[in-house]
Amino acid sequence: MTEYKSIAEQRTKSSSPSQCSIEVRESSFEGRQANRAEMRLRLGLPKGRMAQGINQLIADAGIRTQTSSRDYRPELSFGSMEVKLLKPQAIVTMLAAGSRDIGFAGADWVAELDAPLVELLDTGLDPVQIVAAAPVKSLQDPDFWNRPLVVASEMEVLTNQWIKQRGLTAEFLRSYGSTEVYPPEDADCIVDVVATGATLKANGLNVTDVIMTSSTRLYASPITMERPEQRRLVEEFVLLLRSVLEARQRVMVEVNVTAEVLEKVVASLPCMREPTIATLHGERGYAIKVAAPKNDLPALLTRIKSLGGTDIVVSPISQIVP
Question: 7-124+216-247: which CATH topology?
Answer without folding.
Answer: D-Maltodextrin-Binding Protein; domain 2 (3.40.190)
